[in-house]
Amino acid sequence: MWDSAWPQGGQILLCYALPEFLYQGVGRALLGAIELHAVARGDTQLRLESTCTALRFYERRGFSNAGAPISAFGMTAQPMSKCLSDGAQPGTDASPA
């Protein structure tokens, strides 16, 4: 799910793969497609709120902490953002896995 109301770029509201598709590259492909779409729109940054479970997934793809963790609905989420104009190829990992 995508929200483009943020002036500097887009906000990823939801990005999930069904459990039977975990560790098969589906999440990476989804995130890569979102990043390519954002770059094509001219966005310079993406932001999201990661669950604890997905934190390392987003860090490996170039997202970094963007504030203190927040709690809502019995869950804790980490705000994160990624600059899309720093020369990194959209849709790829930030560092070798």
List the helices and strands and how they pair.
Blueprint: E1 2-3, E2 9-12, H1 26-41, E3 45-51, H2 55-60, E4 64-65, E5 70-72, E6 75-83
Verbal overview:
This protein is an alpha+beta fold and 97 residues long. It has a single domain, classed as Aminopeptidase (3-Layer(aba) Sandwich). The protein is 23% helix and 28% strand. It has helices spanning 26-41, 55-60, and strands at 2-3, 9-12, 45-51, 64-65, 70-72, 75-83. Strands 1, 2, 3, 4, 5 and 6 form a six-stranded mixed β-sheet that branches. A hairpin with a 2-residue loop joins strand 5 (70-72) and strand 6. The mean pLDDT is 84.
Kindly identify the CATH topology.
Aminopeptidase
What characteristic shape results from the CA principal axes? globular
Rg: 13 Å
Low-pLDDT runs of 5+ residues are none
Helical content stands at 10-25%
| Integer tally of domains | 1
User: How many DSSP H or I helices?
Assistant: 2
The average pLDDT value, as a whole number, equals 84
Strand content: 25-35%
